[in-house]
């Protein structure tokens, strides 16, 4: 099949296209309408059809694959390695579902999952799907106030957590964080189901904590039937950062997501039943939801779940995993490859990588030197793909399962089938000419698998995503891009105040809010600047209440450390700025808006351009001075 025809058909005739694709999953009750367009910008897929994500990911494979590994778990933090066949996974998911049910979890209710990378996280997600409960996984690196904010938004009936996580050999106690979040949250659930890994030296014993292990024993042989959900019932909420300090709950459906992931496995990832996929990400991010948990299992593959870093015990660990587990497909973020590039090349060469067919990279721009290095080192196709939490699966990629078009360095490729992707002029909303920079937009309807709405806030969904391109009712990705004559798109960064640090999406406003909570701070601006390894790094420019507060280098250092600790406590260490600069004032417009793009330009040593609305141009000079002093 030619890519061009395939793509054209998918957007010209989505009903027929997706009706065919829907045959990839089991429908307990067939749908009676492929696409309901009656209420744009909302789209409802496979209306009236009843299905279940857990059934499709687990039960459906039992007749043919009960003894095939479904989940291989490797932790280089604890030294634990476990293998679960589809039969084992089925049993564990039933146990977890039975335990959740015994704690009162019902269809349509939310379960918040705050877990490190352990198999129980997969069981918990699939158990929710089985019960028809809506899971909301919160990345384990988020601090208590962030967790509390997500609890209050999702109002879960149960929280699932663990005694501790581990990263780089350091144990991170979870129970004090959970305890603080439970105390802060207005809608704290009555119970926290605790997976005790026996890692935390001192575990909290709050009355709401319920140990999983004894309950698992009690429910060892209980079978929990799958709830047959209408295709458009919500399957999960996943919070992501935007321009405001309040994270958005991206809500996804059941049937559309299942169909979209199953199709992507063939057309984009070329994954087949029986293959092994290693996605090195975290279940707290969308890549983890889609390509650690759901997609490989929907496709009858083996998924490898890894707890640890790419460089511990040494930089060869991932390549040894490929060899040991005969991994066929691998998926990670460019940052990890930039980290591995600094390691001894012998570590890569000495592993037997013959099983590996393709490496997929996503989550942040893939720079050309990294792409060239890894392609040459592996001698296998490296497929960059562009998407976001909201879409759930790639928007741009070379879809090798459709047609293996050539790669162009610096571009993630061409629009994926299902997406009517158009670059538009930010002022006029009109489609861009070839080579003209524009906002990457998607026309209505979004294909299956994409977000349905913002949890509990349809108006925010419409306003944020569908009303930001002038005069055009189109979905904005908030990314800049440029398209060439062959349809290849290159990503040129975000149009909003979101930054991307090591593939993690962070709102600069969230970091600013955390820093502002420090008593010494009068004002702060956080911007992202280029970073050789992490893609971007967050820099904070802080105006102190007491101008002399950071007069000496020692004072400045102490204060910067104290601000970093505040970010760790408020948001989590992932939000910690790489550097803090103290400045007498921040550049603003006369109406008081921060000139962030100008600050970012200065921080990268670029010309901030004309700023006719600036209130006091000397503020620019203080940013320049702070940056050059910091660099010296
Ligand atoms: P997230 O929602 O955390 O997955 O972050 C999505 C954002 O990451 C996108 O809106 C882009 O800004 C960026 N991004 C994701 N994949 C790529 C890619 N392959 N190339 C460039 N930027 C990317």
Can you list the strand order of the major beta sheet? Answer: 5-4-17-16-18-19-20-21-22
Major sheet attributes: 9 strands, mixed
Q: Give the beta-strand count.
A: 32
Q: Find the CATH superfamily of one domain.
A: ANL, C-terminal domain
Q: Quote the average pLDDT.
A: 95
> Approximately how much beta-strand content do the residues carry?
15-25%
Q: Count the helices. How many?
A: 20
Unreliable spans = none
Ligand list: adenosine monophosphate
Gross CATH architecture of one domain: 2-Layer Sandwich
Label the structural class. Answer: alpha/beta
Overall shape: it is globular
Q: What is the C-level CATH assignment of one domain?
A: Alpha Beta
CATH topology of one domain: GMP Synthetase, Chain A, domain 3
Helix content: 25-40%
Radius of gyration: 24 Å
How far apart the termini lie comes to 57 Å
Helix-strand layout with pairing:
Layout: H1 3-12, H2 14-21, E1 33-36, E2 44-47, E3 50-51, H3 53-57, H4 62-65, E4 69-75, E5 81-85, H5 86-102, E6 110-114, H6 119-131, E7 134-137, H7 144-154, E8 158-162, E9 164-167, E10 170-173, H8 175-184, E11 191-195, E12 209-211, H9 212-218, E13 229-230, E14 236-240, E15 248-252, H10 255-267, E16 276-279, H11 286-298, E17 302-307, H12 317-325, E18 329-332, H13 334-341, H14 345-349, E19 358-362, H15 368-378, E20 382-386, E21 396-397, E22 414-415, E23 421-424, E24 438-442, E25 453-454, H16 458-466, E26 475-483, E27 489-494, E28 498-501, E29 504-507, H17 508-516, E30 521-531, E31 535-544, H18 553-570, E32 579-582, H19 596-603, H20 618-631
Parallel strand pairs: 4-17, 6-7, 6-8, 7-14, 8-11, 11-12, 16-17, 16-18, 18-19, 19-20, 31-32
Antiparallel strand pairs: 1-2, 3-13, 4-5, 9-10, 14-15, 15-25, 20-21, 21-22, 23-24, 24-26, 26-27, 28-29, 30-31
Helix pairs in contact: 1-2, 5-6, 5-9, 7-8, 10-11, 13-15, 19-20
The structure holds adenosine monophosphate.
């Amino acid at each position: 099949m030619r890519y061009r025809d395939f793509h054209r058909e998918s957007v010209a005739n989505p009903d027929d296209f997706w009706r065919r694709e829907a045959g990839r999953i089991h429908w307990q009750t067939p749908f009676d309408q492929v696409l309901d367009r009656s209420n744009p910008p909302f789209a409802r897929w496979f209306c009236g059809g009843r299905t279940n994500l857990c059934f499709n990911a687990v039960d459906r494979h039992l007749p043919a694959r009960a003894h095939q590994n479904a989940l291989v778990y490797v932790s280089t933090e604890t030294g634990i390695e476990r293998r679960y066949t589809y039969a084992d996974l089925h049993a564990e998911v039933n146990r977890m579902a039975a335990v959740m049910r015994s704690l009162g979890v019902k269809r349509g209710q939310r379960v918040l999952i705050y877990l490190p990378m352990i198999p129980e996280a997969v069981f918990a997600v699939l158990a929710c799907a089985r019960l028809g409960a809506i899971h909301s996984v919160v990345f384990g690196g988020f601090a208590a106030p962030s967790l509390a904010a997500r609890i209050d938004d999702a109002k879960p009936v149960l929280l699932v957590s663990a005694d501790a996580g581990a990263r780089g050999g350091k144990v991170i106690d979870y129970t004090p964080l959970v305890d603080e979040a439970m105390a802060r949250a207005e809608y704290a659930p009555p119970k926290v189901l605790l997976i005790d890994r026996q890692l935390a030296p001192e575990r909290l014993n709050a009355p709401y904590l319920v140990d999983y292990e004894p309950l698992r024993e009690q429910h060892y042989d209980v079978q929990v039937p799958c709830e047959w959900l209408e295709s458009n019932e919500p399957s999960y909420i996943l919070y992501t950062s935007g321009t405001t300090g309040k994270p958005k709950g991206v809500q996804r459906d059941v049937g559309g997501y299942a169909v979209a992931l199953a199709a992507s496995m063939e057309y984009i990832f070329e994954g087949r039943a029986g293959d092994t996929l290693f996605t090195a990400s975290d279940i707290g991010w969308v890549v983890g939801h889609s390509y650690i948990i759901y997609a490989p299992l929907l496709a009858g593959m083996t998924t490898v779940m890894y707890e640890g870093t790419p460089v511990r015990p040494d930089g060869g660990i991932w390549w040894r995993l490929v060899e040991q587990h005969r991994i066929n497909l691998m998926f990670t973020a460019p940052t990890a490859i930039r980290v591995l590039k600094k390691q001894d090349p012998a570590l890569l060469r000495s592993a037997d990588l013959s099983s590996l067919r393709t490496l997929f990279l996503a989550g942040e721009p893939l720079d050309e030197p990294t792409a060239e290095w890894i392609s040459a080192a592996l001698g296998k196709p490296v497929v960059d793909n562009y998407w976001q939490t909201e879409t759930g699966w790639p928007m741009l990629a070379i879809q090798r399962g459709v047609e293996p078009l050539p790669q162009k360095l610096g571009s993630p490729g061409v629009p994926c089938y299902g997406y009517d992707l158009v670059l538009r002029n930010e002022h006029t909303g009109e489609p861009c000419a070839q080579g003209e920079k524009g906002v990457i937009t998607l026309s209505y309807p979004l294909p299956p698998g994409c977000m349905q709405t913002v949890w509990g806030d349809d108006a925010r969904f419409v306003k944020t995503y569908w009303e930001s391109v002038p005069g055009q009712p189109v979905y904005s990705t908030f990314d800049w891009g440029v398209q060439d004559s062959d349809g290849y798109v290159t990503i040129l960064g975000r149009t909003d105040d979101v930054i991307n640090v090591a593939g993690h999406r962070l709102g600069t406003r969230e970091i600013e809010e955390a820093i502002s909570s420090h008593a010494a701070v009068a004002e702060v601006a956080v911007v992202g600047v280029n970073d050789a390894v992490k893609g971007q790094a967050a820099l904070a420019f802080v105006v102190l209440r007491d101008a002399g507060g950071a007069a000496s280098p020692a004072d400045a250092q102490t204060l910067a450390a104290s601000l970093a600790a505040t970010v760790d406590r408020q948001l989590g260490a992932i939000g910690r700025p790489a550097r803090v600069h103290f400045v007498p004032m921040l550049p603003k417009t006369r109406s008081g808006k921060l000139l962030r793009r100008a600050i970012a330009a200065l921080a990268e040593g670029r010309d901030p351009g004309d700023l006719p609305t600036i209130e006091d141009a000397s503020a620019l000079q203080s940013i320049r001075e702070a940056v050059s002093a910091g660099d010296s």
